TrEMBL record, chain A:
ABC transporter domain segment(s): 10-240
Region (Disordered): 313-348
Keyword Membrane recorded: yes
Naturally occurring in which organism (per UniProt): Nocardioides baculatus
Name of protein: ATP-binding cassette domain-containing protein
Family: Belongs to the ABC transporter superfamily. Drug exporter-1 (DrugE1) (TC 3.A.1.105) family.
Subcellular location: Cell membrane
Record's compositionally biased regions (Acidic residues): 318-329
Bilayer topology: Peripheral membrane protein
Top-level taxon of the source organism: Bacteria
SUPFAM superfamilies: P-loop containing nucleoside triphosphate hydrolases (SSF52540)
One Gene Ontology molecular-function label: ATP binding
UniProtKB/TrEMBL annotation, chain B:
Keywords associated with the record: Antibiotic resistance, Cell membrane, Membrane, Transmembrane, Transmembrane helix, Transport
Localization terms from the record: Cell membrane; Membrane
Family that this chain belongs to: Belongs to the ABC-2 integral membrane protein family.
Membrane topology term: Multi-pass membrane protein
Organism field: Nocardioides baculatus
Transmembrane domains' residue ranges: 44-67, 73-96, 130-148, 154-181, 188-207, 244-264
Chain ranges of the ABC transmembrane type-2 domain: 43-270
UniProt-recorded name of the protein: Transport permease protein
InterPro entries: ABC2_TM, ABC2_TM_bact-type, ABC_2_transport, Nod_factor_ABC_transporter
Pfam families assigned to the protein according to its UniProt record, in alphabetical order: ABC2_membrane (PF01061)
Length: 348, 270
């Protein structure tokens, strides 16, 4: 047994959950270090939420083990719950109460005294920009406000570990940006965050490390950069000054890099895949020797979309399409127009 | 930004389990939540306000002559019986509301909080004692208005009301269990009515049990609803804490002992 200070925030090994014949989570190993944002990335139905629910003591574990700061999730759920704040996919606040009453309720339930409960609630409302709406019914709240209140409710006892299940699904871009800022702040303050997302962009922006989950299995893990380079193949884009140099540049690229370049004569552009990034130098030197003038050079890493496609053999596009339909149905509030799918459409 | 700064995981004072006093305070906090909900949707009070008003007068005038010869002599029998019946009906609503509540997102949060598992179930039930109280008081009031003169006097009536509230809380565990088992609110309503009707009518609420066929009479005599109603009659009509009161409390305790653990177990598995 490790000493408590070196225990990872979350450790899962061989986690399994079956619903009938369907294995929603099929032997996932995870280790979330203290103080990091760990992203679980996967399309809808990949088993992300199920996994999170098991680790949060909300669903019984069918196989394998889960630990939170060294405490077993299955045998010590009460200890785990004391260390954990959970914000679900759909806001879990009481619709019948006001924002103030909600925070008061959750604070009192967790043993805060009356004065402290009131104080902390007021401070959280202020922090999450909800003071004006404090005594309005939740039914009058927008999707973003609910989500913020939900997160505030999870932070009442300042838990060292926070689970965020798709924190920005269904939010408009501005609210999404605010949510991201809040999450970043949490980490600066020392919290550990385990978040699930179906947005590559979100994982890229927030997570220190990412596990890619598909069909209940972990298909890859690493930093965004590691994942991108594991798929290899950055691309080199050259823009030439003189379009008549295109054939020369193309021939050189083919000869030096062994790859067929793509030519875009209208913009005098040559695009070619790289096995290794430093190969680009060879081509640039050769071009200069031949007197080919270059207007601009860019080396691009693959996007996470491409990573996902390479890892799972399918992109997130179809799944996200369904998700948007669901999101709109489940979030009757405003701002459900969500730019994510279009972003991904564009980058595909 | 101090609000966000988290506790260090190693300095958090972890409690190995929820203490009894915490369980009670959590239950009371959740009872407070339920009373706030009640205040905001008063239609949940219909079954304990309108129903006793109508049923009491209706039953007294319709069955009074047939069963006891005249309305006046039927009242000491029917008023405690109606209190039992109304409280039982109010218990059905407890289960149905729990189901509706379970389906809302907030229960997910209750489940993940380090609170006693029984608190989210018992909390609303404590608040519902208010509803049983209203039902019992109103039924007595209507009864007295149409000529019922409880022989037990004020103390007897107060005792009967207290017993009705305690019995309501106990019997509500049956319907809380159904609330946890049923798939949706309609389903819960369905099963609950199916159970509530035999419990009400196969009791001594409206008629003396000795007119029933033998097997039904046997059931009616051990039916906790009958035990409660007999005790209510003893308290209200005679002002005596008889053995029947003891049996009623035993009946209630048995119901709680069976259905509370079943409910908590079921809730833990959800």
């Amino acid at each position: 047994m490790n000493s408590p200070t070196t225990q990872p925030a979350v450790r899962a090994s061989g986690l399994v959950k079956s619903f009938g014949d369907h294995r929603a989570v099929d032997g996932v190993d995870l280790e979330v270090h203290r103080g990091e944002v760990f992203g679980v990335l996967g399309p809808n139905g990949a088993g992300k939420t199920t996994m999170l629910k098991m680790l949060a003591t909300l669903l019984p574990i069918d196989g394998g083990t889960g630990e939170v700061f060294g405490h077993d999730v299955a045998t010590e759920p009460h200890l785990v719950r004391q260390l954990l704040g959970v914000t679900g996919q759909y806001a879990s606040v009481d619709e019948n109460l006001t924002a103030t009453e909600n925070l008061w309720l959750f604070a009192r339930l967790q043993g805060l005294g009356r004065a402290e409960a009131r104080q902390r609630g007021a401070r959280l409302l202020e922090q999450f920009d909800l003071t004006e709406a404090a005594s309005k019914p939740i039914s009058a709240f927008s999707g973003g406000m609910r989500r913020r209140l939900d997160l505030a409710a999870s932070l009442i006892t300042r838990p060292p570990l926070i689970f965020l299940d798709e924190p920005t699904t269904g939010l408009d871009p501005r609210t999404r940006g605010q949510m991201w800022d809040t999450i970043r702040e949490l980490v600066t303050e020392g919290s550990t965050v385990l978040l699930t997302t179906q947005y590559l962009d979100e994982a890229d922006q927030l997570a220190d490390r990412i596990a890619v989950i598909d069909h209940g299995r972990k298909v890859a893990e690493g930093t965004a950069d590691e994942l991108k380079s594991s798929v290899g193949r950055s691309t080199l884009q050259l823009q030439l000054v003189d379009p008549s140099d295109l054939p020369t540049a193309s021939a050189l690229a083919q000869q030096l890099l062994g790859e067929e370049p793509t030519l875009t004569p209208e913009s005098r552009r040559v695009t070619v895949a790289l096995q290794r990034t430093d190969q680009s130098v060879d081509l640039l030197v050769a071009l200069r020797d031949r007197g080919v003038a270059i207007e601009s050079v860019t080396v691009q890493k693959p996007s996470l979309d491409e990573v996902f496609l390479a890892l799972t053999g399918h992109d997130t596009g179809e799944d996200t399409g369904e998700d948007t339909a669901e999101d709109t149905a489940d979030q009757p509030t405003q701002n459900t127009q969500n730019t994510q799918p279009q972003d991904m459409e564009a980058s595909r | 930004m101090t609000t966000l700064s988290p506790e260090r995981p190693d300095t958090v004072d972890l409690a190995p389990h929820v203490s009894l006093s915490d369980t009670i305070s959590q239950t009371m906090t959740l009872a407070w939540r339920a009373t706030v909900k009640m205040r905001r949707s008063l239609e949940v009070m219909f079954d304990v306000t309108i129903q006793p008003l109508i049923f009491t007068a209706m039953f007294a005038y319709i069955f009074g002559g047939a069963i006891s010869g005249d309305v006046g002599s039927y009242l000491p029998l029917i008023i405690p019986g109606l209190i039992g019946q109304t409280v039982l009906t109010a218990c059905v609503a407890t289960g149905v509301q729990l189901r509706t509540d379970l389906d809302s997102g907030v229960f997910d949060r209750f489940k993940v909080l380090p609170i006693a598992r029984i608190a989210p179930l018992a909390g609303p039930m404590v608040a519902d004692m208010l509803r049983y109280l209203i039902a019992a008081v109103l039924t007595f009031t209507v009864g007295i208005a149409i000529g019922y003169r409880p022989g037990g006097g004020f103390a007897g009536v107060a005792g009967a009301i207290l017993l009705a509230v305690v019995a309501g809380w106990s019997l509500a565990w049956i319907f809380t269990f159904f609330g946890l088992v049923g798939r949706n609110a309609q389903g819960v309503q369905g099963i609950s009515l199916l159970v509530m009707f035999p419990l009400t009518f196969l009791s001594n609420a409206f008629v003396p049990t000795d007119t029933m066929p033998r097997p039904l009479e046997a059931f009616a005599e051990v039916n906790p609803v009958s035990l409660v109603i007999t005790a209510l009659r003893d308290l209200a009509n005679r002002g005596e804490v008889t053995g029947a009161v003891g049996w009623a409390l035993v009946g209630c305790a048995v119901v709680v002992a069976i259905f509370a653990p079943l409910s908590v177990r079921r809730f833990k598995k959800m």
